[in-house]
Amino acid sequence: MDSLTDTLPIGPLQEGIWLFWQLNPTSPAYSMPEVFHFDGDFDTEAAEFAFNEVIRRHEALRTTFHETDSGVVQVIDRDPEPVPVKVVDLRGLSPAVRTERMQSALDAAANLPFDLTAEPAIRLTAIQVSESRTALVLVAHHIVCDGTSMTIVLDEFGELYRSARRGTPPDLQPIAPGYSTFAKRQLSALADGALKEESAYWRNRLAGVTGSALPGADHPATRVPGALNTYVVSTPLDDGLAEALSAYARRARSTPFAILLCAMQVVIAAATGDGDQAVGTATSGRTPTFARTVGMLANMVVARSRIDMSRTFADTLEELSLDLMDAIDHQDLPFSRMVADLHDAGLQPGADVVRTVFSAGANGALKLGEGRLSEVVARTVEGPFDLVVDCDMAPSGIALDWEYALRTYSREAADGYCAAYLEILAALLHQPDAAMDSLGLTGILARVAPSPRSDAPSPGALSPAAEPDPPADGLLTSVEGVVAGIWSEVIGVPVHSPHDDFFELGGHSMMAGDVVALVRKRVSRTATLRLLFGHPQLRDFCSLLDVGADPGRASNAREDSRLPRSAGTA
Q1: Are 269 and 437 in contact (CB under 8 A)?
Q2: Which end of the chain has fewer CB within 10 Å, C or N?
Q3: Distance of CA 193 to the CA centre of its chain
Q4: What 8-state DSSP symbol labels residue 172?
Q5: Cα dist from 3 to 6, 78, 144, 178, whole Å
Q6: Contact between residue 126 and residue 46 where contact means Cβ atoms under 8 Å apart
Q7: Rounded distance between C-alpha atoms, residue 486 and residue 507, angstroms
Q8: CA distances from 387 to 92, 276, 286, 361, 369 (A)
Q9: pLDDT at 294 over 90
Q10: Which has the closest alpha carbon to 313: 456, 426, 449?
Q11: How far apart are CA 541 and CA 539, in angstroms?
């Protein structure tokens, strides 16, 4: 190994992306473009300094990938050459030509493929539109950067740029553990057989699964490599709908994301007549140790649910929330390994496991300090999914960003589906306790989707877990004492009674993920989100934990297991 490089196997979460790149080396489908218009005095020199300092701080951004006799490896450059900021100067052109050239330059910068074997998978382009306006295009490849990582990159780039302009030291957090540390832990867990439980869960859960999608073209469209063949639509929720969503989330003890995902599955079920719904959603894969690590830490899980239109949205949401919590409890198995397991076991008949991805986008923004900055959506090429929906839930409001593959959907159908989704969401929130087939949902969809099949199966409901009778004794057992300490640590209030309720004490779904992770580490690996949500009283929850002979023993096999958290349910 070269003294200036480090070499390690490719990480499990990178495997599927690498395979796609090998088959489609000129496709930028897994590129992540961030595009901004900056009105003010842009300092190219400060930007180049900030850009290269971010690369220096994060080893994933100075990594290349190579095939060897022993498999694919990633090579980390310890002392990389500076990466120049590409500058495109349009200032001398006439206004009409400049407008045309600017869009062309934006599209080119956002969609230029990466050679993952020869260059760092990140680049920055500055398009000088006029003396006072510059367009910035920051692009990273998904193999080295997930959504949360991009927010970290933008945050640090902005701080470094501002500090260079001020001539003062930057205010940055210490450099986080590198992605190689995260990847080695994942590889070790797989080699040690620590994820057998997760493998068994997904083989059982996804046997025979077919990814769900809104109806589109009834025959495959021809793919044109590199063509901008996606259609991106952003649909903000108006103030009334956003407030209704938040209010119902509070009443239902749910999250806005879970409600939005549930509504998506209802829309697909109503449009297709198929009650067996399987939609992909991203999980963050981050413990506090790796909170600021840049790399591909996000995993995908499949939310598979039964949607029975004769039931209420309230009941459907409750069951979907439990399904989603189960999926997140088993999120540690990388998606590529999950799919491989299904094929190896003969349980996947060849259909795509995921056709629709519905996730919560990471919140983050670039701040350059001076001037005015606005973000715009980049036009991109199609990827492996028919539809990708990112839910942007910021303090300023909620919006859904839809990316339709034009091989499957027309622009007219895409616009219609977006409008129908918002209308159906409003109807479900207005009457959550009414049978969904009484709300006219198929009529709303009739403008854009085929009528649902009349022979759709009517799935049955999940049976609620039986709750044991609590002991009369009001004193805490040793296990209850440990768990009470964890609750108190996370919620920030004392926990004294075995009948204290996690949610009545002020706990919520974000805290629930932290609690379950700590209980798994300190008490029992059998703790799950579903268990906590179904049995929120301390004694009930503890009585269902399998602690074996030594209640205080933590599971060493997953000492730093990832928090069961996703942007949606956390």
Answers
A1: no
A2: N
A3: 26
A4: -
A5: 8, 9, 22, 18
A6: no
A7: 12
A8: 40, 18, 25, 15, 36
A9: yes
A10: 426
A11: 5
Are 76 and 62 a contacting pair, CB within 8 Å? yes
Q: Decide which of 382 and 507 is more confident.
A: 507
Cα separations in angstroms, 41 against 373, 487, 550? 11, 50, 64
Identify which of 295, 288, 297, 263 has the alpha carbon closest to the alpha carbon of residue 277. 263
Angstrom distance (rounded) from CA 539 to CA 468: 10
pTM surpassing 0.90?
no
Nearest to 502 by CA among 520, 480, 521: 480
> How do residues 428-456 score in pLDDT, each as one tens digit?
999 999 999 999 999 999 876 544 333 33
What is the rounded distance in angstroms from the CA atom of residue 563 to the CA atom of residue 285? 7
Cα 105 to Cα 95: distance, rounded to the nearest angstrom: 15
DSSP run (H or E) holding 512? helix 509-522
pLDDT value, residue 6 = 84
Please, where are the H alpha helices in 218-362? 239-251, 256-272, 313-329, 335-344
Contacts of 425 by beta carbon, 8 Å cutoff, 6+ apart: 241, 245, 260, 263
Beta bridge partners of 137: 35, 125
Question: What residues does 277 pair with on adjacent strands?
Answer: 305
Single-letter amino acid, residue 448: V
Alpha-carbon gap, residue 350 to 220, rounded angstroms: 16
What's the one-letter identity of residue 506?
G
Q: In angstroms, what CA-CA distances link 555 with 33, 59, 82?
A: 40, 30, 44
Amino acid at 273: G
Residue 247: name the closest of 513, 432, 511, 510 by CA.
432
CA distances from 79 to 45, 159, 340 (A): 20, 22, 37
Q: How far apart are the first and last CA of the chain?
A: 41
